[in-house]
Design a protein that fits this description.
alpha/beta, Rossmann fold, UDP-N-acetylmuramoyl-L-alanine:D-glutamate ligase, 2 domains, single chain
């Protein structure tokens, strides 16, 4: 099963959206997200590698070096170096020293094949002793290009890469680093691709669409960590859902969605029981949730990893939610909990639709994603906001993300309850912002899958079994 980002045109002119891109330093994890999203938009990894390697070669040629040594690792950073070697092979005497870990990426293997047709000296090394047989190539080099690890490098470097880095540092040749210096290497110049990852980098564009950065996509799923084999019960988190009364089905939809999104235990505080054996029902004292239930609810808030407030709640229990929120570590506030004064947890995610946003801010967010993003970012809401719509807008006031997944069939009642439950489960291990981005993307993708078979007959409950097929497809496919 392959799930792609939506390819319909963005419903606005993207030329004015550059203000929502991150122009400061970004993390390697964020860059991997952007790369993956770019590929889902039709820019292949091989194309990105070609662009990066070409930019690297142009910078390297500024040194007018007669003898160039390019150090290449097994990952895509090494592939960037191999592309640069191919481009420079007619301008200089190029030697490529490449690490054979036995686990080259597919694109890097492709670049090695291409390089075999060029006038380049190619030396493979597998261990430290292999490097010691070629000390002369370090001493003779006029320029050394570091393409060993890039964004894949972290912590202490092991042999034989440690020796390779030490030899580069001992050389008199300047060192040009591709994208991000390998740990321990001393760079003279850093050629960063798309965005800088460390200070003093020179940034070169490699053709990544802006939507890959400001939009959600399959790259966001890379933030989710695989569970280890020795995990124990409860590692997926305990979720508490507070809702129901006027609309009894809503909290149960949220709870089931949270389980499908990875939560281990879900408790539902609601007046009405529905026969769902996977969910733990916590009954209330009457037909609605009132202050009389606080003695039951507050201890559950204290023990839960995430508390979801609002599905099917009705307007009369707002004071209860305000009191409970003081005991919530991480909270998702949806539906009727979105009233003033706003409840807030230590970390809060608010999931309003347009009408709810207007109710809590007194401001209509507008129609275009651009206007809605401005409205959310300037709303002074104390947390992360997921403003639902044809294009969802997610913001923590510092960052903006747009989600295009979903279909018109998702206007059916209850889909917002499913989304809230998914976000609650994701918040166990992720920040509110990342949980909102992934939750919106995954729920929209699930809607697309179900619409393919159910059309406009889709119900909110139909969405729930599709959620894990999106969130956990790497595990399901054995990747």
């Amino acid at each position: 099963m392959t799930i792609h980002m939506q390819h319909q045109p963005f419903p606005d002119d993207l030329t004015r959206y550059s203000e929502y891109a991150c122009l400061d330093l970004i993390t390697p994890e964020e860059m991997r997200r952007i790369d993956h999203n770019a590929q889902s938009l039709g820019i292949s990894g091989l194309e990105l590698m070609e662009s990066a390697g070409t930019a690297l070669s142009l910078v390297a040629q500024e040194y007018h070096a007669g003898i160039v040594l390019i150090l290449c690792g097994s990952g895509n950073n090494g592939g960037d170096g191999l592309v640069a070697a191919r481009h420079m092979s007619r301008e200089a005497e190029v030697t490529v020293l490449w690490y054979d870990s036995g686990h080259q990426t597919r694109s890097t293997r492709r670049q090695l094949e291409r390089l075999s047709h060029c006038d380049v000296r190619s030396i493979r090394f597998r261990c430290r002793e292999d490097l010691l047989h070629h000390l002369d190539i370090f001493s003779k080099a006029d320029l050394i290009v570091d393409a060993l690890l890039g964004t894949g490098g972290a912590g202490t470097v092991r042999e034989p890469l440690k020796t390779c880095i030490d030899l580069a540092n001992q050389s008199q040749a300047p060192v040009l680093c591709a994208d991000l210096p390998s740990p321990g290497i001393i760079p003279d110049r850093i050629c960063a691709f798309h965005r800088p990852k460390v200070k003093d980098s020179e940034v070169y564009d490699i053709g990544i669409p802006i939507l890959a950065e400001i939009g959600t996509g399959p790259g966001d799923l890379l933030l989710m960590q695989e569970r280890k084999q020795n995990v124990h019960k409860g590692v997926g988190g305990e979720i508490l859902v507070i809702g129901g009364g006027p609309y009894q089905g809503a909290p149960w939809l949220s709870g089931l969605a949270a389980l499908r999104a990875g939560a281990d235990i879900v408790r539902i505080v609601t007046p009405h029981y529905l026969p769902e054996p996977d969910l733990i029902h916590i009954p209330t004292s009457g037909d609605t949730i009132t202050q009389n239930d606080l003695d039951t609810i507050i201890p559950l808030c204290d023990r839960s990893d995430v508390v979801l407030c609002g599905p099917g709640l009705g307007p009369d229990a707002h004071e209860v939610i305000l009191t409970c929120s003081e005991h919530v570590k991480k909270g998702v506030f949806d539906a009727d909990s979105l009233r003033t004064p706003l409840p807030h947890a230590h970390e809060s995610l608010y999931t309003p639709h347009t009408g709810e946003f207007t109710r809590i801010t007194g401001r209509d967010p507008g129609l275009t994603p651009y206007d809605r993003a401005h409205a959310v970012r300037n709303s002074d809401i104390p947390g992360t906001v997921l403003l639902k719509g044809p294009v969802d807008v997610i913001s923590d006031t510092k960052r903006i993300r747009f989600n295009q997944t979903g279909t018109p069939a998702m206007t059916t009642g209850g889909t917002g309850d499913v989304l809230a439950g998914v976000c609650a489960a994701l918040m166990v291990h992720l920040s509110a912002f990342d949980a909102a981005c992934i939750g919106a993307y995954a729920t929209g993708c699930a809607g697309e899958m179900i619409t393919n078979t159910h059309g406009y007959g889709m119900t909110a409950r139909d969405l729930i079994p599709a959620i894990p097929q999106v969130l956990f497809r790497r595990t399901l496919e054995g990747e």
